[in-house]
Amino acid sequence: MGTDMIRGVAAGTAPAPLSVLELATVGEGITPGEALRHATELAGKAEEWGYHRLWVAEHHGMPGVASSSPAVLIAHLAAATRRIRVGSGGVMLPNHAPLVIAEQFGTLHALHPGRIDLGLGRAPGTDMATANALRREAEVDPDAFPQQVAELTGFLDGAFPPGHPYQALQATPRSDDRPPIWLLGSSGFSARLAGLLGLPFAFAHHFSAENTEPALDLYRSSFRPSGVLDRPYALIGVAALAADTDEEALRQAMPGALSWLRMRLGRPGRVPTPDEAAAYPYTPAEREFVRGRLSNVIHGVPDRVRDGLEELRKRTGADELMITTMTHGGAARLRSYELIARAYGTNA
């Protein structure tokens, strides 16, 4: 598998590719079906505006997120687009048997060759009660992640070492090539593993900003060239929101901040409206939490967001930026992605 499947960006694009992390967020007064239609519209527009890839994330038990089944949503979004890479950011591998993921993504790759990415996470993507319901009697052991990645790779490649208990098994459908595997993380564990395996690495800067540079340093120092990459390739997830004025950008960013606060308080729900977020009776501690959350969202007029993205890219040395935008409804999100694409120069 060539590195162009990971790095391939048309000449004349932005200094680093921009991509999209999609959660199919469900706002107050919006049905899950409407949220998924918004996600489909965004995929088409992201392709039109020059974004490099669009990933969907596996979350469970969250009323404000409709992306709990990445493979199903990826199939739909890939069928609704023609060029943009579509993938998982990520599949939470400990929730699934590796053979099942190999079959799902083998099918997606057969349907959309050269356009599917398989990003893998180590966390459950939910609370432990839901994780136990997903896994049933399977042991919940985050330290087994390297073994699970090796097993999944064996199924995708059709190659297990001699004597392996699954040596005679095949994941079908399977092609001579396969979707590129990425490791995702918000700490050093997956950073080191991605480096040792010579895989591309995606770091969740949007909710673990303090760990970004240490994790990327660990990834690069641990990196060993492989058949996938000859040098490290790091992507970071970035929370960003652009609007026509700074005031409107802040207004549209507040619903996402309130959603994070409610999750922290154990009360996850649908994404509130900007008016609801503005009227919420924040305690001093809650207001401080929201301020901290907003400090990690690059928001404002397009030029301000572009400059913030470029500063972050240069500071971290990231090869690619993946933007996630949490606000209420589809119109403000679409407008934000369009403004960012035009300001950043993605050939929009």
From TrEMBL:
<protein>
    <submittedName>
        <fullName>LLM class flavin-dependent oxidoreductase</fullName>
    </submittedName>
</protein>
<dbReference type="GO" id="GO:0016705">
    <property type="term" value="F:oxidoreductase activity, acting on paired donors, with incorporation or reduction of molecular oxygen"/>
</dbReference>
<dbReference type="GO" id="GO:0005829">
    <property type="term" value="C:cytosol"/>
</dbReference>
<dbReference type="Pfam" id="PF00296">
    <property type="entry name" value="Bac_luciferase"/>
</dbReference>
<comment type="similarity">
    <text>To bacterial alkanal monooxygenase alpha and beta chains.</text>
</comment>
<dbReference type="InterPro" id="IPR011251">
    <property type="entry name" value="Luciferase-like_dom"/>
</dbReference>
<dbReference type="InterPro" id="IPR036661">
    <property type="entry name" value="Luciferase-like_sf"/>
</dbReference>
<dbReference type="InterPro" id="IPR019949">
    <property type="entry name" value="CmoO-like"/>
</dbReference>
<feature type="domain" description="Luciferase-like">
    <location>
        <begin position="23"/>
        <end position="319"/>
    </location>
</feature>
<dbReference type="InterPro" id="IPR050766">
    <property type="entry name" value="Bact_Lucif_Oxidored"/>
</dbReference>
